[in-house]
């Protein structure tokens, strides 16, 4: 078996290939077209479908955001002839951050909503693809990513006035499909909370209540919490890293349990669940000071096998000298195998891989800031 890692950075897409998860051949930055602009594009989103070999990436270039597709495991690329996402022309303009206009006049009527960046891509059954976009919106494709439909129900949710931009921007940044039910979907919003649908996006329920905050006047709001990442384990339990503690929810409508007690920090961005073992999750804590570096300047992954009741450092093979690169919310993943490989990249431009025994190997170093990492088994 072979393995492919997609590495999205602030200056283009890199790929790494291996047959043993130990030694890697790295290529990039890739020129997705002939003009060269995509070689220095910001790559915030990537998704891969092992069943078909299809890969999608969201690239933000000099000319704006675009979606690129490969059907041969990232060897060649194509772009839709027309922009795959465009807000309805009759959609009332919405500011990127409601807090910017609170108590002031609303923007001019001739302003329009514009797709600024694609933050998340996720494959579903058949030719279904979901996309999370800035400004805060969800889009659905049923033709493999050639065209997308805007989800008006989430956009118009009554709680949308509590959504803010966060430091990264106002966006649907996490999409968590339910492999057993294509009608069921969970999304997370930057400074907006967590929402679920059971009817393929026709209606949405907020499920963030119980996640506390320490940065606002209301420490236990019903919505608007700054959620950094959500992941789903093999039994359907949700795990969330907030701008604060990490949480677990077997039934989100029944409340969330704080699982940060044994972690070196409450704060973090990335969180990834094991594809086949319930209760097994990896996290990459970040120090709670504003410098946003690893606790004690020591890079390490932390792993739980009991749903977050206990955590253990999983750092064998990682640098022991001071290290200052953090792992962003989409900078970590598994390759989805039954015996999975684990991967993460840092803002120092280093990418690491480990099999399930827990020893890390360097994939590549000194790339631009790593924004997203996705991996898959390949023939």
From TrEMBL:
Q: What is its EC number?
A: 3.2.1.-
Kindly indicate whether the keyword Hydrolase belongs to this entry.
yes
CDD domains to which the protein is assigned, alphabetical: Sialidase_non-viral
Record keywords? Glycosidase, Hydrolase
GO MF entry, a single one: hydrolase activity, acting on glycosyl bonds
Name the top EC class.
hydrolase
* Listed name of the protein: Sialidase family protein
What organism is recorded for this protein? Glycomyces tritici
């Amino acid at each position: 078996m072979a393995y492919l890692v997609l590495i999205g950075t602030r200056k283009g897409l890199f790929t790494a290939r291996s047959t043993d998860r130990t030694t890697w051949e790295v290529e990039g930055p890739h020129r997705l077209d002939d003009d060269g602009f995509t070689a220095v594009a910001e790559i915030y989103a990537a998704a891969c479908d092992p069943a078909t070999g299809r890969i999608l990436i969201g690239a933000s270039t000099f000319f704006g955001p675009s979606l690129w597709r490969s059907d041969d495991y990232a060897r060649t690329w194509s772009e839709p002839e027309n922009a795959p996402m465009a807000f309805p022309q009759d959609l009332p303009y919405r500011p990127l951050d409601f807090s910017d206009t609170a108590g002031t006049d609303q923007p001019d009527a001739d302003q329009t909503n514009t797709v600024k960046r694609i933050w998340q891509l996720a494959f579903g059954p058949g030719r279904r693809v979901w996309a999370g976009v800035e400004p805060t919106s969800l889009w659905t494709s049923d033709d493999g990513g050639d065209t997308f439909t805007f989800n008006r129900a989430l956009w118009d949710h009554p709680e949308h006035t509590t959504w803010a931009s966060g430091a990264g921007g106002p966006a649907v940044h996490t999409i968590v499909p339910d492999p057993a039910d294509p009608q069921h979907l969970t999304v997370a919003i930057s400074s907006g909370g967590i929402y679920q649908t059971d009817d393929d996006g026709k209606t949405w329920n907020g499920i963030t209540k119980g996640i506390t905050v320490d940065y606002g006047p209301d420490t236990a709001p019903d919505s608007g919490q700054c959620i950094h990442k959500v992941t789903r384990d093999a039994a359907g339990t949700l795990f969330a890293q907030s701008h604060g503690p990490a949480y677990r929810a077997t039934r989100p409508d029944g409340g969330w349990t704080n699982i940060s007690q044994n972690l070196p920090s409450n704060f973090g961005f990335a969180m990834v669940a094991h594809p086949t073992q319930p209760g097994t999750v990896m996290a990459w804590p970040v120090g709670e000071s504003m410098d946003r570096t690893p606790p004690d300047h020591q890079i390490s992954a932390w792993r739980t096998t009991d749903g977050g009741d206990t955590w253990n450092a999983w750092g064998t093979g990682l640098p022991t000298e001071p290290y200052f690169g953090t792992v962003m919310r989409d900078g970590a993943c598994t390759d989805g195998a039954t015996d999975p490989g684990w991967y993460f990249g840092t803002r120092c431009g280093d990418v690491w891989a480990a099999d399930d025994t827990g020893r890390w190997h360097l994939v590549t170093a000194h790339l631009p800031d790593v924004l997203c990492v996705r991996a898959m088994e390949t023939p």
